[in-house]
Amino acid sequence: MQFSVDEQSRILEMAWEDRTPFEAIEHQFGLNEQAVIKLMRKSLKLSSFKLWRERASGRKTKHLLLRSSSVSRGYCPTQYKQR
Questions:
Q1: Which Pfam family, an example, fits this chain (predicted)?
Q2: What does the pLDDT look like over 42-83, one tens digit per residue?
Q3: How far apart are CA 43 and CA 40, in angstroms?
Q4: Distance separating alpha carbons of residues 64 and 25, to the nearest angstrom
Q5: H or E element: which one contains 11?
Q6: Sequence spans of domains, the chain
Q7: CA atoms in the 13 A half-sphere facing the CB of 78
């Protein structure tokens, strides 16, 4: 799939977010977890990719089936601050 620069930027941002599950990226952009990993590997420096992979692998919130029912949204309440 081809994505615009803005779409690719948003996918990378969603992948970095702890509370955004891979399923949300797949729903919005049609990329499953493996495709997101491939995109991240291609788009990031090796050291950044390794940091992201370690971080994403340890997060239950990155998978809908593993996340707690107390996580009811894909972002932290302080993520989008009012100006």
A1: DUF2805
A2: 999 999 999 999 888 877 766 666 555 655 555 555 555 555
A3: 5
A4: 12
A5: helix 5-16
A6: 5-62
A7: 0
